[in-house]
Amino acid sequence: MPSLKDLKNRIESVKSTRKITKAMQMVAAAKLRRAQDAAEMSRPYSERFTAVMAGLARAVGDSEGAPKLLAGTGSDQVQLLIVMTAERGLCGGFNSNIAKLARVRGQELLAAGKTVKVLTVGKKGRDALKRDFGDNFIGHVDMTEIKRVGYEDARRIAQDVLSRFDGEEFDVATIFFSRFESVVSQIPTAQQIIPAAFEAGEDEGTSTLYDYEPSEEAILADLLPRGVATAIFSALLENGASEQGARMSAMDNATRNAGDMIDRLTIEFNRSRQAVITNELIEIISGAEAL
Amino acid sequence: MAQSFQFDLVSPERRLAEMEATEVQIPGSDGDMTAMADHAPTITTLRPGLLAVTHGGGTDEFVVVGGFAEIGGGVTVLAEQAMPRAEVTQEVFDALLGEARKAEENAADVDEAAKAVADVIAVGERLGLAARG
C-alpha cells in the first residue's frame, strides 16, 4: 500500500497533467476554428475547379491526344503513395489511421506485384511507415516550419510530384489524408490525383456548351497541373482541420480521464489517512487499557 | 442601366469578390475580353493581368495570376493568385516578378514563360510600379 506522501505526490502530478491536457485542448480548439475557416474558404475554389475540369475531361477525355495527367501512362505498375500526416502527435488516432490506410493499400499493391513508392508529408507518417516501407521512400516534405498552410506549400509539393511524373518515376499517384467531418469524426481517405479521376456526377457540362479559348486541349494542359496542386491544397487543409479536431477530442478525453483519476486517488488518499488515524487511536486506547 | 449578373472571384485561399456586376474585363491568355450579361458561355485561361469589375458602386480592380474564367449564367474567375489592386505594393509585385523570372529559368516552353514575365511587367506599368533587378 502506497504511503500518504506517495499518494499526495501522485495526485499532484495527475493534476498538473490535467492542466497541460486542458491547455492543449483549448489551444487545439482555437486552432481548429482557424483551420476550419481556411478549409471552408478553399472549398468554393476547389468545387468550381473540379466541376469545370470534369466538364473538360468529358469533352476531351477519350480523344487520342489527351494529356497523360488525365489519361494516365497506360500502365499502373508503379504506384506513388503520398501520405499526408501531422508533424506532431498527441492527437488520438489521427496519424495512425492515415498510416494504417496507406499501409493496407501499400501491402495490397505489393501483393499484386506492383512497385510502390512512398512520399511522406509530415513527420509522423514517415515514422509510422518506416518499418514496412522504409525502402520505398522516395522523399519527404517537412512541414515543421509551416505554421499556416498556404497554397504556395501545396504548389511546391505538386511541382515535386509533377516533375517526378514527367521523369516517368511513377504511373499512378494517390494521396492519403483525413477528411474532416466533425470534431469527433475524421475519415481517413485515399484519393487518386494522377491520372485525374472525376466522379461522373451531375451532368451540368452537357447542358451548357462552352466556347474554349484557347482550345480545350490547351486549357486542359494548363489546368491539370493546377488541379494536382488544388487537390493537394484541399487535402492539406482538410488534414489541418482534422488534426486539430482529433487533438481536441483526444485532449478532452485525457482531461476527463485525469479528472476521474484524481477523484479515485483522492478517495484512496482519504481512506489511507483515515486508516492511519484509526490505527493511532487504537494504539492509544489499547495502551491506556493496558495500564 | 446595363443588365447585371453574378460575379465571383475566388482564389484557393479566399473568396475575394462576390457581387452583382455589369461588366467584367478579363485578361484572357488569348487577349482581353469584356464580359457583360448574356455573354456566350466561354471558358478561358488567364494570363497575369488586371481584372476590372464594373458594378453599381464603381469599378474594382484585381491583379490575377494563373487560373481561368468561366462565363456562363454569371462570371466565375478562379485565379491561382488574386489580390485587390490596393494590396499590390512594390514588394508584392517584386515577389510576383521574381516568381515569373524563376519559372522562366526552368521553363520547357521559353516563349510562354517569357510572355508571362512580360505580362507581369505590363501589370506593373499599369499600376505605376517599376520592374527592378
Q: What do we call the CATH topology of the largest domain in chain A? A: Pyruvate Kinase, Chain: A, domain 1
Mean pLDDT of chain A: 88
Total domain count of chain B: 2
Low-confidence stretches of chain A: none
Can you give the mean pLDDT of chain B?
87
CATH architecture of the largest domain in chain B: Sandwich
Q: Report the β-strand fraction of chain A as a percent range.
A: 5-15%
Task: Supply the helix-strand structural class of chain A.
Answer: alpha/beta
CATH architecture of the largest domain in chain A: 3-Layer(aba) Sandwich
Structure summary, number of beta strands of chain A: 6
Instruction: Note the gap between the termini of chain A.
Output: 32 Å
Order of neighbouring strands in the sheet with most strands of chain B: 1-2-5-6-7
Overall tally of domains of chain A: 2
Sheet with most strands of chain A: 5 strands, mixed
Number of strands of chain B: 7
Instruction: Summarize the amount of helix of chain B as a percent range.
Output: 25-40%
What is the general shape of chain A? elongated
Write the layout of secondary structure elements.
The complex is a heterodimer of chains A (291) and B (133).
Chain A: H1 4-60, H2 68-71, E1 78-84, H3 94-111, E2 115-121, H4 123-133, E3 137-141, H5 151-166, E4 172-180, E5 186-194, H6 204-207, E6 211-213, H7 216-290
Parallel strand pairs in A: 1-2, 1-4, 2-3
Antiparallel strand pairs in A: 4-5
Helix pairs in contact in A: 1-7, 3-4, 5-7
Chain B: E1 5-10, E2 15-28, E3 31-36, E4 42-45, E5 49-55, E6 58-71, E7 75-84, H1 90-105, H2 110-127
Parallel strand pairs in B: 1-7
Antiparallel strand pairs in B: 1-2, 2-3, 2-5, 4-6, 5-6, 6-7
Helix pairs in contact in B: 1-2
